[in-house]
Design goal:
The chain has 1179 residues and is an alpha/beta fold. Helices cover 14% and strands 20% of the residues. The protein has a 17-stranded parallel β-sheet, with no helix packed on it. Strands 4-3-2-1-7-6-5 form a seven-stranded antiparallel β-sheet, with helices on one face. A six-stranded parallel β-sheet has the order 8-9-10-11-12-13, with no helix packed on it. The relative contact order is 0.05.
């Protein structure tokens, strides 16, 4: 009984079988499981001997002759009855209630999808009422007790879904389930169908999508009741002849196959086919066998093919045609029955329809090469929607604008210079004329188009607006008005009063200097107001009368007085960034609806603690963070600075997150990222918090940009865990680092992305795209890959109806169709590189690369630039989440900070060529996981190691060692002029950490003056000294060691030493473990954890915090379970480190080998004086 996981009640009771008293009462084990009553002997219950009584449709009655007894009866002509006697009233009532529920229910549908099942649970076979069984996304097997070969036991089964089970071949025994009317076998890897499928005479729906079928058996023609046959995303190269026999079919669904020729003659022989779906094939040509017309086909879908010319004039009954994303130059159709035509994203120069389509209601011809509106479209009497955006139009015909049926006209992104003057009233409701060359709108536009609700005239050259209808009471119905990026002045504001029903008003990036208070007072229905990018000094106080206002965007102005918006009852979003605010007068209580307040970029604004406490309940509060005094950001601030803007739009949550680290890897680089979760906000937040850490780890493992970027994305994909099972996110990561491969460049930019987030570099004023869009519509190679792997692409161009992206982080259940493999590109940065723009899908859908670059390249503040991009996107029609980041670049000698401390830069001869080791061999030294300590001389004490370290410093820097109590003042090197390195070795920091009351470094008193390079933290003092390798010539000419210092290990000359000296108040425990890193391509000292901008719960970016963790660096030291290590306690300087006996011989051999291979001659006094001071940028 253990396998029955649906046991409701069970117990040992007296049972009698049958309605008569011929049988005696006997003690039995009674179980109410699922929909059945199971009776078995107590002794044989474990052997599986039992009587099963189906209860669905049966009866549960009280036995009056015996106390606390129930009679269980099954349904049907041969019904059986069992009497069960219970001991207590409570048991009797509990069994009666539960059994009554089972008897009354009817289980007809069972959904077991996505349960990783290999067979059907046994208890399901006890129910004979199952009519629909869903086993989608499992691992069903054939020859098992509950396998597919046993499904014939469901005698009433009508619907069966076995899609996505990777069966490999068609289960023949399914053809014995004669009751089936619906069968789904999609995505199972079938190459052929058995002839027995003709036995399913009752079958009405058969879905075979996502397999490898090339032909269909003739026996399939026996299924005369088949009304739906799906064979999309298979390998058919021609239309199967079986369609001619299946007369009940009215749709031919063959999307995603391998058809290359559209043969209209074959379709003419199928008079029962009305709907033809040939999306995503390889159609290139069309063949017409005869001149006979087709009077049957009404709908045809030819999207995403390779057609160049299309003539469907023979389809005289065609009502709807989809032919988007082909290579069409000319299109010819019949207009007898045409109602809708979608031909976007082609290369059309002519569209011919004859006769004039009198029934045409919707015409979409955007993103083509049309120079004028077709004449037949102007004569269509019932046309309601016309989309001619992104063409080459120079004028809008009067017949179109004055049409008595047209309600929506889209002619944006053309070359229109003026619109015709309206004479009569028109029913137009939506007019989009953005991105044209308009200098004025028709004077009678608002007086004749009284139904106009939406007008977008952004990105033109408008200097004035037409007046509304005359009269005391305005009849204007205008609700949404977008006039961003024009030349409007204060004179246009009084005209707005004529539109009292305005809900959304965008006047950003114009030339407004004032907004009259009396005019704003009359816009009482205003809900969203955008005045950013103007020259306003104040927002009128009458804004308090706009009781419905929920969004105010007024960034990038000269506003010095905080507007009176905190009195508005519905205010939610306020953006006053990049202004001149100095103080805020707040009421006693803020509105509960306020969710987002952005005050960044107001350099003179000082918020008191009381004000901050008042703002504490706001979900997102963005204010400028004061830089920490210990933050050493001056080194990199001259090379790059960033600004970030994120706007939720019409949605109630923000699913876009960004990563910004100006001072990455100890100030020698920067990292910027953008993450878009589309409909989820969890994954972007997770990636924002973890991806910088992952990148830092991977950079330490390899200098190959392709390797560490690919690994960063794969590791981040894995770290998403359960959250990444069904959720996905686009990701974009940009890493700026010193360029060691190109001597002519100081920095290189590596960009990696998956999904739809993109990065664009502005070089000499021109956009340079650095990323790739992984979507089905924009990447034909990715679309073909997904097709080859038999994914189901729905009509809205989404993989399995989930996402349009083909590469994402997350969505692991859609593998292998959705991959986390990124596109990676690297480019050296030069002085011509001005800025870098990162944006999500919504930004680039509404702004071209050129427009985005031209919009911000002359803006001084990167924050204002990012804000401007988001504002433009919203004004151009974006209603989704939009995010933009602008990184200003200043790559050039003028940005050098090497002489900030008065030090002289070395000459050209001071820099040696660097050899980059792309894939270095694995080190022979044991790793930290091996449990073997670092190699030390067993006769070396703590004080000796201290003096040795000091002498090593003096060797490389020609300065007095730490033992003398003096620390050299570190020379700050910018990333343009890194510290000279060896021709073979790069800097490889090691770590040594020890604690002592009296050490030989001169830092034995808390009263000492602070020394540069020393970090104090409460009772702890940490000193970081980075000693890197010099060139081979410098090593040979290094000064002699001090007499009281033992000869350092040759390995330490090659690796360098990184010191951390920590004094604690606790008991002294000397720790001294210098350790070398495994990889020779390390660019960053691992003593500092990853520094990245963390986003608070309110969405603000906080400054970085320095990590003082010097312990985790020791990768070769044995670690405890806690992740830290410590050497044995050493209370006296005479304590020695002991090398394990099993390693003594190995240590001696390695030391001997290095001493022989690296002899050190006595340097001369002249060589010592010529060696310049060299320090690393990290100091």
């Amino acid at each position: 009984m253990d396998h029955l996981d649906r046991i409701l009640l069970s117990g040992i009771y007296n049972v009698r079988k049958g309605k008569t008293q011929l049988h005696k009462w006997a003690e039995r084990l009674v179980v109410l499981c699922g929909t059945c009553l199971i009776v078995s002997s107590v002794k044989d219950c474990q052997t599986g001997k039992m009587h099963i009584l189906p209860l669905v449709g049966g009866k549960v009655e009280e036995v009056k002759r015996r106390q606390y007894s129930l009679a269980f009866s099954s349904a049907g002509a041969q019904a059986q009855t069992y009497h069960v006697s219970f001991e207590t009233l409570a048991e009797y009532q509990r069994w009666q209630r539960q059994a009554s529920k089972v008897v009354s229910q009817r289980i007809s549908t069972v959904d077991l999808s996505c349960y990783s099942l290999e067979e059907v649970p046994e208890h399901l076979f006890y129910s004979q009422d199952i009519t629909y069984l869903n086993l989608r996304h499992n691992f069903m097997q054939l020859e098992r007790p509950g396998g597919l070969d046993t499904l014939y036991k469901f005698s009433q089964l009508k619907g069966l879904n076995l899609s996505h089970n990777k069966l490999g071949f068609f289960p023949v025994l399914l053809c014995e389930i004669s009751t089936l009317t619906e069968l789904n076998l999609s995505c199972n890897g079938f190459h052929d169908l058995p002839s027995q499928i003709g036995n399913l005479l009752n079958l009405q729906t058969l879905c075979l999508d996502g397999n490898f079928l090339t032909t269909l058996p003739e026996e399939l023609g026996n299924l005369q009741q088949l009304s739906s046959l799906g064979i999309s995303f298979n390998n058919f190269s021609q239309v199967p002849e079986i369609y001619e026999k299946l007369t009940m079919l009215d749709k031919m669904v063959m999307a995603g196959n391998q058809l290359e020729v559209l043969n209209l003659g074959v379709l003419n022989r199928m008079s029962h086919i009305k709907y033809v779906d040939l999306r995503m094939n390889h159609l290139k040509t069309m063949v017409i066998e005869n001149l006979e017309g087709n009077k049957y086909i009404t709908h045809m879908d030819l999207r995403d093919n390779q057609l160049t010319d299309l003539d469907l004039s023979s389809l005289c009954s065609l009502e709807q045609l989809h032919c988007e994303r082909n290579q069409l130059r000319e299109l010819t159709l019949s207009g007898f029955s045409l109602r809708t035509l979608y031909a976007n994203s082609n290369k059309l120069t002519a569209v011919n329809v004859y006769p004039v389509p009198s029934l045409l209601s919707s015409l979409e011809l955007s993103r083509n090469l049309l120079e004028c509106v077709p004449d037949w479209a102007c004569e269509a009497k019932k046309i309601e929607i016309l989309d001619m955006s992104y063409n080459l139009l120079t004028e809008v015909p009067m017949r179109i604008l004055s049409s008595l049926s047209l309600r929506k006209l889209m002619v944006g992104h053309n070359r229109v210079q003026n619109l015709p003057v309206l004479v009569e009233h028109i029913p137009l409701e939506v007019l989009d004329v953005q991105h044209n060359s308009l200098t004025r709108l028709p004077d009678t536009l608002f007086s004749k188009a009284l139904n106009l609700r939406y007008l977008n005239a952004s990105a033109n050259s408008l200097e004035s607006l037409p007046s509304a209808c005359a009269g005391e009471e305005s009849l204007s119905a205008l609700q949404l008005l977008y006039l961003t990026n024009n030349l409007l002045t204060d004179q246009c504001v009084p005209i707005l009063v004529g539109h009292p029903h305005l809900r959304i008003l965008h006047l950003a990036n114009n030339q407004l200097q004032t907004f009259p208070a009396s005019k704003l007072n009359k816009l009482e229905e205003l809900e969203e107001l955008n005045l950013s990018g103007n020259k306003l000094k104040t927002i009128p106080t009458t804004i308090a009368n706009c009781k419905r206002l929920h969004t105010l965007v007024a960034h990038s102005n000269n506003i010095s007085i905080f507007p009176e918006i905190l009195q508005l009852p519905q205010i939610q979003f306020v953006d006053l960034s990049c202004n001149d605010l100095t103080e805020i007068l707040i009421p006693e209580a803020l509105p509960a609806t306020l969710q987002d307040l952005d005050l960044t970029g107001n350099t003179n604004l000082v918020l008191e603690h009381k004000t901050l406490d008042t703002f504490s309940h706001i979900t997102t509060l963005k204010i400028d963070q004061k830089p920490l005094p210990t933050t050493d950001s001056t080194i990199t601030s001259t090379f790059w600075s960033h600004g970030l803007a994120e706007m939720a739009g019409q949605r109630n949550k923000l699913c876009v997150s960004a990563l910004a680290v100006d001072n990455f890897a100890e100030g020698v680089g920067a990292v910027y990222g953008m993450f878009d979760g589309d409909r989820n906000e969890e994954l972007p937040r997770l990636l924002q918090c973890t991806m910088a850490d992952v990148l830092l780890e991977e950079v330490q493992q390899s200098t190959n940009d392709t390797v560490f970027m690919a690994n960063t994305f794969l590791v981040s994909h894995r770290k998403l865990g359960m959250a990444g099972q069904k959720l996905g996110s686009s990701a974009l990561l940009c890493y700026i680092r010193p360029d060691t491969a190109d001597p002519t460049s100081s920095f290189s930019l590596t960009v990696a992305n998956v999904g739809t987030c993109q990065a664009v570099l502005c070089r000499s004023g021109k956009p340079v795209p650095l990323s790739k869009v992984f979507s089905l519509e924009q990447d034909s190679e990715e679309a073909q890959r997904v097709k080859d792997q038999k994914a189901i692409i729905t009509e809205d161009n989404k993989v399995n109806g989930v996402t349009c992206c083909t590469r994402m982080l997350g969505c692991t259940y859609l593998y292998p169709w959705i991959l986390p493999k990124p596109h990676i590109s690297s480019t050296p940065l030069t002085i011509q590189d001005e800025l870098l723009i990162l944006g999500n899908k919504a930004l680039w859908e509404h702004l071209s690369y050129t427009e985005a670059v031209n919009a911000v390249r002359h803006v001084q503040d990167p924050l204002a630039a990012a804000k401007k991009l988001c504002t433009l996107a919203q004004s151009y029609g974006c209603q989704d989440n939009v995010g933009a980041m602008v990184v200003y670049l200043n790559i050039g000698e003028e940005g050098c900070t090497c002489e900030m401390n008065g030090l002289t830069l070395p000459g050209p001869g001071g820099f040696a060529s660097t050899t980059i080791i792309k894939d270095p061999p694995k080190p022979t030294t044991p790793s930290s996981s091996s449990g073997i300590a670092s190699e030390f001389s067993s006769e070396m004490s703590t004080s000796e190691v201290s003096s040795e370290v000091g002498s090593t410093a003096s060797d490389e820097h020609n300065t007095v060692g730490l033992d003398a109590g003096l620390l050299p003042r570190p020379e700050r090197r910018c990333s343009l002029h890194p510290t000279p390195t060896s021709g073979v070795f790069q800097r490889q920091p090691s770590c040594a950490t020890f604690s002592s009351n009296q050490s030989d470094n001169g830092l034995d008193s808390d009263d000492d003056q602070p020394v540069e390079g020393v970090i104090t933290n409460g009772s702890k003092v940490e000193v970081e000294v980075d000693i890197h390798c010099c060139r081979g010539r410098d090593l040979e000419n290094s000064p002699t060691l001090r007499e009281n210092s033992p000869t350092p290990c040759p390995e330490e000359h090659a690796r360098g030493v990184f010191l951390g000296i920590r004094r604690q108040n606790s008991v002294n425990s000397g720790i001294l473990l210098p350790v070398s890193k495994d990889k020779m391509e390390l660019q960053k000292s691992p003593s500092t954890s990853c520094l990245y901008g963390k986003k608070l719960s309110n969405g603000s970016i906080v400054p970085l915090e320095d990590s003082l963790n010097l312990i985790e660096v020791a990768t070769e030291a044995p670690k405890k379970k806690t992740g830290y290590f410590a050497a044995p306690t050493q209370l006296e300087p005479e304590d020695q480190f002991v090398v394990p006996r099993d390693l003594e011989e190995e240590v001696k051999e390695q030391m001997k080998h290095h001493q022989e291979s690296r002899p050190e001659p006595e340097p001369s006094e002249e060589d010592r004086t010529e060696l310049p001071e060299e320090f690393d940028t990290a100091l």
